[in-house]
Amino acid sequence: MKNIVSIIFIALLLTACEKTIDLKYKDNLSRIIIEGNITNEAGPYYVKITKSIKLTETGTYPTIDDAVVTISDDAGNSETLSTLGNGTYRTNLLTGVEGRTYTLTVQAENQTYTAQSTMPQHVPFDSIRIETDIITGETEYSVIPVYTDPFAKGNNYRFVLWINNKLINQHFVQNDEVRNGAANSVRLEINDDDIEFKQGDSISLQMQCIDKNVALYYRTLALISDSGPGGGATPNNPPNNISNGALGIFSAYTVEQKSKSLP
Amino acid sequence: MKEGNNKDYQVSGGLGLISSRLLVEGPIQKDKSSFMISGRRTYADLFAKLSSDMKDVKLYFYDLNAKANWAINSKNKLYFSGYFGKDVFSVSSLFGSDWGNATATLRWNSLLSSKLFSNTSFIYSNYDFNVGFKTDASEMNFNSHIKDLNLKQDFTWYANARNTLRIGFNVIQHTVTPTKAEGTDIVNNKRSRKGLENAVYVSNSWKASDVINIDYGLRFSFYNVLGGNTYNIYKNNQLIDSIKLANGKFGKNYYNLEPRISASYSLNNTAAIKIGYARNTQNLHLMSNSTGGSPTDAWIGNSYNIKPEVADQFSIGFSKNLHNNAFELNTETYYKTMQHQIDYRDGADINTVPDIESELLFGKGRAYGIEILLRKKKGNLTGWVGYTLSKTERQINGINKGQWYNAKQDRTHDLSIVGIYTLSPRWTLSGTFIYTTGNAVTFPTGKYVLNNMVIYQYGTRNADRMPATHRLDISATYERPARKNWQSSWSFGLYNVYGRRNPFAITFKENKDNPQKIDAVQTSLFQWVPSITYNFKF
Q1: pLDDT tens across A63-79, in order?
Q2: pLDDT winner (highest mean) among A226-240, B133-147, B292-306, B379-393
Q3: Which of A222, B252, B343, B470 is deepest in the core (most CB within 10 A)?
């Protein structure tokens, strides 16, 4: 074992190589995908209904345009969303309010799907802190969202990152399980294998306060894509808050965004 | 491994491009006691340091082996052996990892009478694994170890010409620390757990007739979960109870009876058939994630949720010597059923969860296969061809809708061909070819877009395969004419002759030029590795 391990590292250093390969994939079952968002900013809010495609396909994603989509809240409001086409549905009256629980109902292809999400209380996003390290001659950047976790336990945060206005397809979730009530000093675990940070790059970071189920969904996605030491998760479709086997997520969240240039 | 030479001092070794070794052996008291010490060291980092990016890199492997034996008198002998090995890989103070393995064995062999032998052994072993990362913002350490203390007592009684009895016991204390992460980003305080693995056994090798041999025995194994930790009890992955077990206290106990019997029947002078049944239990369990990413196997001991794995194996074999013993053929087929198999639940958090047991599911397994080994033992060309065709599956409620699925280690084909050709008294050529089916893993099958991000869709657990691993290695050895006491030889080798890029990990990425397209990117380790070694002995 130990010999193999040392050989592996020798090899990684001296001769490891990467290449794109062709794999034989198993058939994919096309599933319905529901994406719903309600925020504490002014509406309208959107729900998108699409279908999954095979991993190897490069075409467009099929959309469902004849669904009946309703959203209600626990304050007695309810509305049916307008169809905009291209799988998109829009609210007209609904407002996102912290502390309220929203229920999404989608009737599509003779099936009914329901989902619930509660908008947490807003936690202010103070600033973005950037730290640098020199590792084997290269500058490595750490991105730390600065906020103070409130005293009550059970807060979950999701971060969406753009570099030079390009959305980074990675999932960042933090919670207060270990450091409840503390000012955050934990960096985002950015996989920078394929991202080259440069001095002067503009970083935009959106902080979302999300509920427990939404956090579990994004945390599982982050774990599945994590290939670090001891890391990762069993690959699977992450547990979500939508019934009846639909994939996707319905999230009611608060939102705040900051930008900064890399020093 | 060989014992030290108890007549003369001897030194042997090898000097190579990336590693060297040295062995010294000799008598302590002539004809009564001897010792042997050997060591190896690789120095790949000397090459790494030639590149300016790598000057802070440490990368080496070394091991030390020591053996000694002492004949106390004509009836008692003591043997000692020790092993210590370590791998170190670090990049200045930012990243470091090391693997260490240490074992020590003390064995006392005693002839109690002309027919009764006793062997008493104390064995210590420790396997350690550490990885650390450090930046200004955070610090992380992963660490895992297994430490065993083992006492073995075995009596062999040559009762008569037809019966050889063995009786004995074995006590092992395991200390298992699961992969423990500590740092500013995560704190998962996984503490080590102790367990006592005990067994008493009796067996008899009975020569029933000139053509029939029957071996049979019974082993009673019992395992005690030991205190010093809190054990959680889960039902459907929900915590239902927590047991705080004080240090030194005995917790849950598991008892198993393991019968075994095998019979061989000689059909004639050159052929025999053998049938057997055996039950085995296993108390340390290997947990493997089913991604195509970097391997993350970890060990865990029995607990309140994790029961000993029990396997019942039935086998039937046939062996034959051919062409006047120039060839030997062995075949065996087997069927195995397994209870208390373990796997991670869907979406299990392997890295940061406080108690990995909350992420486990349990079920049963089965394995079957056929093994064929043909060996050529005479002539200038010797070697063997070995082939195994097999299947290993699990059925666990909650995984793959309760349907049977491939275990990660399921290996359909496993072929090895080894040939050694003596060209002349000085030159020997050898070649090895291996082919194995890739691990069963879970790749994505589909994709969708959610909030402008592409997300993968997964289907059945372990329904996919890593590409097969295959490789040819060749080597040539030239024995130099001996000069006085100095014997020496040169070995030239080439690993992976045809440069096969064997898979180490596969990850999925958006294509840089066309983000609509998903690429499967395979990481491979070394393609070709040449080696030259100078071996000596004096």
Answers
A1: 999 999 999 999 999 99
A2: B379-393
A3: B343
Query: How close are the terminal C-alpha atoms of chain B, in Å?
Result: 20
Q: Measuring CA to CA, how many Å separate B180 from each of A6, B117, B351, B401?
A: 22, 44, 9, 31
Could you count the other beta carbons within 10 Å of the beta carbon of residue A92? Answer: 11
Nearest Cα to B432, choosing from B417, B448, B443? B417
| Tens-place pLDDT, residues A105-133 | 999 999 999 999 999 999 999 999 998 87
Cβ within 8 Å, pair A12-B514: no
Token readout for B521 is: 């990117």
What length does chain A have? Answer: 263
Answer yes or no: do A132 and A225 share one domain.
yes
* CATH code assigned at A140: 2.60.40
In chain A, whose CA is at the least distance from the CA of B293?
A: A227
Position A178, amino acid: V
- Nearest beta carbon to residue B187 from set A13, A178, A238: A178
Domain that holds residue B362: 224-377
CA angle A186, A192, A195 (to 5 degrees): 130
Mean per-residue pLDDT for A210-217?
95
The size of the A-B interface in CB pairs under 8 A is 262
Q: Which residues of B touch A140 (CB under 8 A)?
A: 135
Measured CA to CA, the distance from residue B384 to residue B417 in angstroms comes to 6
Say whether both B341 and B437 belong to one domain: no
pLDDT, position B526: 66
Task: Compute how many other C-beta atoms are within 10 angstroms of the C-beta atom of residue B122.
Answer: 13
Q: Which domain holds residue A223?
A: 125-237+254-261
